[in-house]
Amino acid sequence: MSQQNLESLDVEAIREEFPILEREFDGQQVVYLDNAATTQTPDVVVDAMSDYYRESNANVHRGIHHLSQAASIAYEEAHDRVADFIGADGRKEVIFTKNTTESENLVAYSWGLNELGPGDRVVLTEMEHHASLVTWQQVAHRAGADVEYIRVDDTGRLDMNHARELIDDDTAIVSAVHVSNTLGTVNPVTELTELAHEHDALSFIDGAQAVPNRPVDVGEIDADFYAFSGHKMAGPTGIGVLYGKQAVLEELEPYLYGGGMIRKVTFEDSTWGELPWKFEPGTPPIAEAVGLHAAVDWLEEIGMDRIEAHEQELAAYAYDRLTAEGDVEIYGPEGGPDRGGLVSFNLEGVHSHDLASIMNDHTVAVRAGDHCTQPLHDKLGVPASTRASFYVYNTREEVDKLVAALEDARTLFA
Ligand code: 7TS
Fold first, then answer.
1. Could you report the per-residue pLDDT of 262-301, keeping only the tens digit for each?
2. Do 55 and 132 sit in the same domain of this protein?
3. Domain match, 265 and 322 both
4. Residue 319's domain is classified under what CATH number?
5. DSSP helix/strand/coil, 100
């Protein structure tokens, strides 16, 4: 995107909606570059949630009274808004969960434990987050199914020839991350879904690092399932989304049982209510749904294509600046269309935890560790990495502060 278009994204005005970005520690303003873990929350989202508690708080789906009706409508409308945002066919395809991890577990338990068996193959990628990798691995173990991993090549991209070899008629599901939270790679998820469908397998896409940062249309991708979290997209913690194709969800057994999800209960047995409530027993995250609705409104007002372009520009800038340092190893593709807005790296001779600690002395907030991708780090041959991840409110000056902090780390540790 051109500099002119970037300027049309008024980052300074956006930053004013986030008072937390003005916080200072030891007299230095925080530089928040840990957005892949959790993004900050704009005032409109905080206000929407506190207005809900002040004006409409009650339990949903139960009451005849005014407040319960107001809460129910707000909760249902949040489903509609999210459905519209990701191109789903309405609220029946949008299940609210706690987070991406729970969305993964819902499908793995409900579909996987019932449908997988010996001889079946679950195909993952080597860059899966543990939310997907551990969940499918453990459910496959219990079901007696095999797990295979699509290789990551030297550039940090998926080896699609290997994908074509692995995805065969024994494959029951392909579960792939849309954008890697460690490598930043944007994966060809439509192609992977097509491959899965050619072999009558299902496809599950982990969109935790995609939906917050780029336009996503689940209809275009055609995946059977797609998951993401509210707290990585300017929304609150405590709410996640599982999109599922209605026809697939209708066939699925519930994962959790209880109140609010049933049609008829006798002492002997029970039948299930309509989608999506069949998968949302108990009191759901109502205020969080209201907050997520506000976050989606806020993101769309800015424009997902502009958010994507802004992050790509920052990631490319960070990639170039870090490469120019000479003693920094960066993982994943070069800055460009198939890299999302994050950069993981190591400074020669310095452990990532030490580096993150030096960064913190400069009030630069980055992540150090394996980012819940241990097997991928094993493959990269490093125990950990340092990750800077960007959002719509970050600036080039903040990238400069990150790079400037490297000098201290060299002096102290290298
Ligand atoms: N999938 C991906 C690709 C992720 O990046 C994360 C969280 C998850 C799933 C799990 O999301 P949750 O909301 O259920 O926790 N990733 C990170 C991270 O990179 N650092 O902290 C959390």
1. 999 999 999 999 999 999 999 999 999 999 999 999 999 9
2. yes
3. no
4. 3.90.1150.10
5. helix
Q: Among 268, 300, 332, which residue terminates a domain? A: 300
pLDDT tens, residue by residue, 328-377: 999 999 878 899 999 999 999 999 999 999 999 999 999 999 999 999 99
Tally of domains in the chain: 2
Report the C-alpha dihedral over residues 275, 123, 388, 390, rounded to 10 degrees. Answer: -40
**What is the 180 CA–ligand 1 centroid distance (Å)?**
10
Of 396, 403, 363, 391, the residue nearest 24 (C-alpha): 363
- Enter the pTM of the model: 0.97
Strand ranges for 102-201 from DSSP E: 121-125, 146-150, 171-177
Reference 33, options 409, 412, 404, 401; nearest CA is 401
**Residue 351 Cα to ligand 1 middle (Å):** 22
pLDDT value at residue 349:
94
Q: List, in order, residues 6 or more apart from 249 with CB less than 8 Å away.
A: 92, 93, 95, 275, 276, 278, 279
Residue 30: exposed, middle, or buried by beta-carbon count in 10 A (0-12, 13-18, 19+)? middle
Please state at what angle helix 286-302 crosses helix 304-324, rounded to 10 degrees.
80
Q: What is the DSSP letter of 17?
A: T
Return mean pLDDT, the chain: 96
Which of 320, 347, 339, 344 has the alpha carbon at shortest distance from 405?
347
Element (H, E) at 244: strand 240-244
CA distance 176 to 195: 12
Range of the domain at 373: 3-41+304-412
Residue 178 and residue 189 in contact, taking contact as beta carbons nearer than 8 Å: yes
Whether residue 335 lies in the annotated active site: no
CA of 44 to the centre of ligand 1 (A): 24
Atom of ligand 1 nearest to the CA of 179: 3
Provide the b/e sequence for 284-293 (b: ≥16 CB within 10 Å): bbbbbbbbbb
Of 172, 186, 189, 372, the active-site residue reads 372
